[in-house]
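Figure 3 (text version): structure tokens given as input.
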């Protein structure tokens, strides 16, 4: 790799992780292994042996150059556009090795708990949704203003919602045939004629596309209609429903617009898109069979919950004789405020429930409450709780409310001292899992005592974290707190038993 890349390996690795985490927040199904950040002043051709290609923005200072290695199979326009944006941020924030030294010193000074704040400040330009807006503006730079597509998708024609395609190109070669239409007089494609355009879109349907040609830098006109298979080398707007449309270029989907929200496509294959979230279960559940049962239920809900839903799972020590469990008391509290529908004990097993019934209970607004044995305790639960940590404004109300709820349970305000997690299943399929764990020193396991293995595990992790922070291996420290397999490798590396 280059001299600079070796010198600043830890810093580059930290920045690489941050960038990937931001893309992951934006793109459902993003796989971090599709790209790798580097900084160099000399370039060696590693693409042949690695299966990656270099991608950089051509920026050269006296000493350094930022870029990415991108998996050849994933060199898509959507990913390259995102990379462009982040490279510009890096160029602005870290223009030379002097600035890189400053970043390195800051990271050396900070500890893990402070890195989040520095990360947000470093990428302040994209922390409030500007990344998506910047991305959308870039991929649409060669097209008419997006406002016209927003209005077209919201406009019905004779009470019919349309499914139509619009194809855009600088110049079309239209030939008269039995399978195409050429208008004698082209019609201007402008927002003032939106109702006429909506009428013409009835020609399109799912088979044809209206052909829209660029007349000047700001002017477009509808020339006719052709079959979609003849319009592959174009930008296409596909309107699929009321206030729903997609942008495609050369058959690659670049984003979807749905009722005011822009959604970017997955980056990478989606085979193991949920693996990273499911790994979180290892932090809180030792029993592999129990983890697999929970995963299977989540998958079943994901396939059946057409509008998305959420789950709250709670585990706690067996209550003393005559006492009620936290889960029972919490459901009673929420029911008392009209925020939940309690289910008779042991009457609903989510692992054995039929798909049709599962689809019905998850269609109700609100979350499903259950224990780690998947016994459903309540449905239609509207969670509450004091905000204890900043939310993610780029995500919906369901995500933010459920994540905040489980964070709140073990906070200083509630002090529930329980193991719990929120599972958020989005309407379009992705899942998020938020873990909140009891204080292991204050709460025993379900048998009523803390096991020797658990105590040993705590000591091991504590020793490991001290070593990693001392050696300034902050990325390893962050990863070790979540990834059990990586943690075991580090235990072996440092001889921790």
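Below: residues designed for each position.
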């Amino acid at each position: 790799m280059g001299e600079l890349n070796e010198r600043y390996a830890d810093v580059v690795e930290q920045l690489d992780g941050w960038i990937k985490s931001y893309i992951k927040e934006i793109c459902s199904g993003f796989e971090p292994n599709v790209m790798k950040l580097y900084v160099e002043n000399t370039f060696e051709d590693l693409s042949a042996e690695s299966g990656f290609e270099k991608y950089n923005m051509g920026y050269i200072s006296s000493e350094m150059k930022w870029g990415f290695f991108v998996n050849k199979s994933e060199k898509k326009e959507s990913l390259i556009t995102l990379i462009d944006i982040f490279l510009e941020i890096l160029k602005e924030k870290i223009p030379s090795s002097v600035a890189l030294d400053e970043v390195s010193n800051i990271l050396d000074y900070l500890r893990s708990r402070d890195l989040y704040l520095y990360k947000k400040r470093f990428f302040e330009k994209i922390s409030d949704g500007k990344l998506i807006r910047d991305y959308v503006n870039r991929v649409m730079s060669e097209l008419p203003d997006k406002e016209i597509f927003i209005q077209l998708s919201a406009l019905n024609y004779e009470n019919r919602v349309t499914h139509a395609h619009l194809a855009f190109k600088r110049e079309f070669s239209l030939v008269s045939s039995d399978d195409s239409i050429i208008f004698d007089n082209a019609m201007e494609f402008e927002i003032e004629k939106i109702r006429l355009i909506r009428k013409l879109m009835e020609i399109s349907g799912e088979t044809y596309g209206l052909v829209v040609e660029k007349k000047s830098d700001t002017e477009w006109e509808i020339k006719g209609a052709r079959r979609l298979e003849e319009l592959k080398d174009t930008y296409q707007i596909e309107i699929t429903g009321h206030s729903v449309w997609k942008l495609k270029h050369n058959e690659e989907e670049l984003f979807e617009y749905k009722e005011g929200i822009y959604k970017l496509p997955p980056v990478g294959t989606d085979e193991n898109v949920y693996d990273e979230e499911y790994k979180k279960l290892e932090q809180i559940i030792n029993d592999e069979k129990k983890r697999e049962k929970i995963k299977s239920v989540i998958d079943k809900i994901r396939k059946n919950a057409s509008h998305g839903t959420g789950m709250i799972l709670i585990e706690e020590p067996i209550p003393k004789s005559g006492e009620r469990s936290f889960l029972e008391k919490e459901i009673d509290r929420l029911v008392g405020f009209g925020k939940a529908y309690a289910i008779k004990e042991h009457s609903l097993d989510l692992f054995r429930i039929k798909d049709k019934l599962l689809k019905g209970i998850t269609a109700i607004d609100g979350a499903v409450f259950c224990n780690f044995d998947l016994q459903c305790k309540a449905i239609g639960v509207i969670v509450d709780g004091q905000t204890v940590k900043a939310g993610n404004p780029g995500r919906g109300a369901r995500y933010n409310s459920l994540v905040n709820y489980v964070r709140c349970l073990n906070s200083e305000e509630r002090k529930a001292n329980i193991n719990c997690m929120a599972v958020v299943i989005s309407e379009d399929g992705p899942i998020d899992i938020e873990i909140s764990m009891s204080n292991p020193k204050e709460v025993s396991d379900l048998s009523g005592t803390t096991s020797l293995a658990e105590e040993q595990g705590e000591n091991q992790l504590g020793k490991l974290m001290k070593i990693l922070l001392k050696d300034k291996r902050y990325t390893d420290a962050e990863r070790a707190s979540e990834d059990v397999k990586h943690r075991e490798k580090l235990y072996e590396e440092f001889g921790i038993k």
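Residues 43-49, 440-458 have pLDDT under 50 and may be disordered.
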